[in-house]
Specification:
This protein is globular. The protein is built from nine helices and 13 strands. It has 295 residues and is an alpha+beta fold. The protein has one domain: B-lactam Antibiotic, Isopenicillin N Synthase, Chain (Jelly Rolls, Sandwich). The strands form five sheets. Strands 2-12-3-10 form a four-stranded antiparallel sheet, covered by helices on one side. A three-stranded antiparallel sheet has the order 9-4-11, with no helix packed on it. Strands 1-13 form a two-stranded antiparallel ribbon. Bound molecules: fe (ii) ion. The site of fe (ii) ion (FE2) has 3 residues, from loops. InterPro entries: Gig2-like, IPNS-like_sf. This is DUF1479-domain-containing protein.
């Protein structure tokens, strides 16, 4: 997993080719995320198409917004989802809400702990991150002139540039703040989500699936299999000041057997949690912040 994450982190690049202080794409860090066991049957509507790691922050935070500057200046084809610079300082969680990743993940990922095939509760992704980024970032600045269920909704003449509205389609205001982006067929008809969201192929235990941090993804509603569908969420994190600072706090939580900072807090102690003795490799120990890098 550490080797795979290192490879993924190195898909990002610095267009200016400057030496960025405190950044090492080849030194992965670890973000302790969730473990999921989904039983067969039932229907989940908990994870419709969405993007994690920043909601209204994508527009509101100047550094995060800089990641999309080519799109916002009209040169959307030049947008590089793998440009490193803005990502390093992007504040993806301005309001410190629980369950919001505050770190920079180059890719989100999960490690399969069971055999899972399409229709068995697996992951679906939108297959083009350049197009979805361009469309989602610009969508708040356009307004349809016909009802969303009109057969003429796809005609570009039925859309108008309009910056008078404070609405951000797909950004949902909840009790605990903004969530989303959550594109929907009604609000984002040009994404053809019913057709384009694609299930990942069958995975076996030990297979890992990664998707770029801006990729629209969802979880299948149905699980028609006969076994549990179980995954560990393990993203790819490079070393950078933002991630290093988080890993320092996460380490203290790990040593105390309590939940990491980005998650709902509670004081309960869980039996059987890991200890530093369980992390055998020097790469893993460093990724958890237990040792410092040797230059
Ligand atoms: Fe997600």
């Amino acid at each position: 997993m550490m080797a795979a994450c290192t490879w993924l982190n190195n898909l990002y690049r610095d267009p200016a080719d400057s030496k960025l202080e405190g950044v090492d794409l080849s030194a992965p860090l670890t973000y302790a995320d969730r473990f999921r066991i989904r039983h067969p049957g039932g229907s989940w509507d908990t994870f419709p198409p969405h993007i994690d790691g920043g909601s209204i922050e994508r527009w509101e935070d100047p550094a995060f917004r800089a990641c999309f500057s080519d799109i916002l200046s009209g040169n959307w084809r030049q947008h590089d989802p793998y440009a490193l610079l803005g990502r390093l300082n992007a504040r993806a969680s301005l309001y410190q809400r629980p369950n919001r990743a505050s770190i920079f993940r180059t890719f989100q990922g999960w490690l399969a702990m069971s055999e899972t095939a399409p229709t068995q509760g697996t992951l679906k992704v939108f297959p083009d991150v350049l197009l979805s980024n361009a469309y989602l970032i610009l969508r708040p600045f356009f307004r349809p002139l016909v009802p969303v269920d009109s057969k003429d909704i796809m005609n570009h003449q039925n859309w108008e540039f309009d910056i008078s509205s404070p609405e951000f389609p797909g950004i949902v205001l909840r009790d605990d703040g903004f969530s989303g982006p959550r594109p929907t067929p009604e609000l984002h008809p040009h994404m053809f989500l019913e057709k384009t969201m694609t299930s990942v192929p069958k995975v076996m235990p030990g297979d890992a699936v990664f998707w770029h941090c801006d990729v629209v993804h969802s979880v299948e509603q149905e699980h028609t299999g006969t076994e549990d569908s179980a995954v560990m969420y393990i993203p790819a994190l490079p070393t950078c000041p933002l991630n290093q600072a988080y890993v320092e706090k996460q380490k203290e939580c790990f040593l105390n057997g309590i939940r990491p900072p980005d998650f709902p807090q509670g004081l309960e102690q869980f039996p059987g949690t890991g200890t530093p003795k369980d992390i055998l490799s020097s790469v893993g120990q460093r990724a958890m912040g237990l040792t410092v890098a040797v230059a």
